DNA sequence: TCTTGACCTTCCCATGATTGGAAGCCCTAA
DNA sequence: TTAGGGCTTCCAATCATGGGAAGGTCAAGA
């Protein structure tokens, strides 16, 4: 399989496959005589793993750890669970931040009549009724 | 006021003040004879507006629009409200995505006993029980 | 008056993950 | 043989922010 086929089979774009290889997340692909990268089922499976982990929002360095654990027969599931729960925590932190922003804004927007008049509690919150 | 004082007074770092000026979000600051940027209460108020808008997660291009509306006596509050609600929508979209990730991961982690054994539903979800 | 330390200036680089594009080589089908 | 699509590498941009270097400026203290 060439990189394009591996991309289709794994759901990871060819660009990203090359990038993941360049940063060492995945091993260097074998090459044909003419220099084309060559992939088999095994490599596609790894790419799919990476894809799924990215879809779950794991940052690349954590995916590196997950890949290592995946390949370690003597792993402790506790290590995997810790990585997952740490990531959940970081997600929830960001969610809480964004939810606070959204709540504040929704509240301000509710108080804004939203018509042709200039009076606006949103702008008043941001910096006062009129620009200086 | 020099840029450092304006930074302290507004909560925007000196680095960011220069950056906002360079991209045209805020007007170019006046300069002293020796080339130092010079700020007054008016400029600090603008910076505070930008700061508050950033804290609410508005992207810079939207802050540009908000600043323009702030300075427009004939604005329609409807325009401000629309910008705010569009942003709320974009926040809620991202929140929903991240919440879905967190829910999936938390669910998988619950099913993972998290001990010294290698069996792990998290890894199984990502790519199967063992690396290829 | 000179020195010192804190400030300012511009310029470049890095982040993280991803996309886009350009220039040039390779492969296959017509 | 040619046309096209796919492959290669390299470079640039995203978005907002921080870090740092090299060099100029200012104010306080000796």
UniProtKB/TrEMBL annotation, chains A, B:
One function term, GO molecular function aspect: DNA binding
Keyword Cytoplasm: yes
Keyword Phosphoprotein: no
InterPro entries cross-referenced by the UniProt entry: CueR, DNA-bd_dom_put_sf, MerR-type_HTH_dom, MerR_fam, Tscrpt_reg_MerR_DNA-bd
Keywords from the named record: Coiled coil, Cytoplasm, DNA-binding, Transcription, Transcription regulation
Name of the featured protein: MerR family transcriptional regulator, gold-responsive activator of gol and ges genes
Coiled coil regions, renumbered to chain: 81-108
GO cellular component, one term: cytoplasm
Organism the protein comes from: Rhodobacter aestuarii
Protein location: Cytoplasm
GO terms, biological process: positive regulation of DNA-templated transcription
The HTH merR-type domain, residue ranges: 1-69
NCBIfam families in UniProt: CueR (TIGR02044)
Pfam families hit by this protein: MerR, MerR-DNA-bind
